[in-house]
Amino acid sequence: MTVNWDAIVKTYDVRGLVGKDLTNEVVAALAAAFVDELDAAGTDVIVGHDMRDSSPEFAEAFAEGAQARGAHVVSIGLCSTDESYFASGALDAPAAMFTASHNPATYNGIKFSRAGARGISLDTGLAAIRDRAKVYLENGINEVDEPGSFREEHILVRYASYLRELVSLNTIRPLKVVVDAGNGMGGLTVPAVLGHANDLERLPLEIVPMYFELDGTFPNHEANPLDPKNLVDLQRAVVDYQADLGLAFDGDADRVFVVDEKGQPVTPSAVAAIVARREIAREKIQNPGAPITVLHNLLTSNVVREVVEADGARAVRTKVGHSLIKDKMAETNAVFGGEHSAHYYFRDFWGADNGMLAAMHVLAEFGNQDKSMSEFAASYNPYFLSGEINSTVADAQAAKDRIREAFADRADFEEFDGITAQGKSADAGTWWWFNVRTSNTEPLLRLNVEASNEADMIRVRDEVLSLIRA
């Protein structure tokens, strides 16, 4: 079969259409390549999968390919992506997670980790895995003299207990929380962690479940809370149930989005600032006097940096990207990292991202004070953000050139993950910035704008958009 390897092997993971791009043969070849590239013969390799119809079969094909090259497969079965990171960290073994995250049911994919939940990107091994897999698909997989073994291991209870150790929710005020799992893996992990499904102590939380049934066809809405249309059901339910807040998880439950009691979204930047403040405070207690670093990507609100610095820590700005931020977490020994896309990374979770852990931090901080969520979140959301706006373009460079020319006298430009413009404001106390980035996977330009006042944000947003779409 003909496989467009460059199309399915993305910057940070593997993703493609089931049956067209991804088949059992392709998956088995990737498994063999993964074992070889990581020199994992004779050691454990963890395999987990989400609720998509194709995931169990792909996980089985991966296990066969990995065993053929000598790896001992540890199957953790149905799990969230952050559960697979937990297994990789707790068992100190590389892992493969079958999921296409928030993509439609016709897609599937693989998120790879090295031992200790360390990320793998094109630059740090994924390209080599791709190239090895090409050869295995063409020539077949040579089975080693001593093929690997297979065993099952259930880690959900250990995962839930570990998160409960990191964030205590026992003494918060009683909260009613609507949770939209989007028929994704949050339907498994939320009852385990926030409920008492595993005989853990009952928490002062009343969970109102929405779409907890695991269903990879996503019958209610796409499991992508970043798209506002997929939050509508949750927003309505929070108001109808008179809940304190709402939580929405994406398909593989590694991202979380928060909605206040009025049904209004709390920005991922506000969540990042809330969690950063808690992690900084804890590090001060555990390691008095030690330097503290928090990461934030360049698209988060300025409030994240301001909160981090006000609390006595160093804020380090990064480019956008899952594996890149994981690497930076390790390099800087950062206690926490936040992205505008609602990925939140924790040093105490092997530097990996964990939506559930971020949700628990928000519940803990919010539940230990008396304000409503809208009032509580307002102080972490003082500025005006456009959100990410995507435009299909034929010539991205030409669009960027138009923007540079138009704003040459009004902004200072920086080449850092696209182009970032800092406005030269004539009015004291006012400011604005925007970033224009090319998508890694689609013919898109992505625009993000923030300003100290709404009028400037709208003005800059509309002008840049007109230049992009000219």
Task: Give a written overview of the molecule.
With 470 residues, the protein is of the alpha/beta class. The protein has 4 domains: 5-154, Alpha-D-Glucose-1,6-Bisphosphate, subunit A, domain 3 (Alpha-D-Glucose-1,6-Bisphosphate, Chain A, domain 3, 3-Layer(aba) Sandwich); 158-263, Alpha-D-Glucose-1,6-Bisphosphate, Chain A, domain 3 (3-Layer(aba) Sandwich), CATH 3.40.120.10; 268-378, Alpha-D-Glucose-1,6-Bisphosphate, subunit A, domain 3 (Alpha-D-Glucose-1,6-Bisphosphate, Chain A, domain 3, 3-Layer(aba) Sandwich), CATH 3.40.120; 384-468, Alpha-D-phosphohexomutase, C-terminal domain (TATA-Binding Protein), CATH 3.30.310. Helix content is 36%, strand content 22%. The chain is built from 15 helices and 22 strands. The strands form 4 sheets. Strands 1, 2, 3, 4, 5, 6 and 7 form a 7-stranded mixed sheet that branches. Strand 8 (175-180), helix 7 and strand 9 (205-210) form a beta-alpha-beta unit. The longest helix has 19 residues, at 268-286. The chain starts with a helix and ends with a helix. The model has no long low-confidence stretch (mean pLDDT 95). Residues 388-465 form the Alpha-D-phosphohexomutase C-terminal domain. GO terms for molecular function: intramolecular phosphotransferase activity; metal ion binding. It holds the Pfam family PGM_PMM_II.
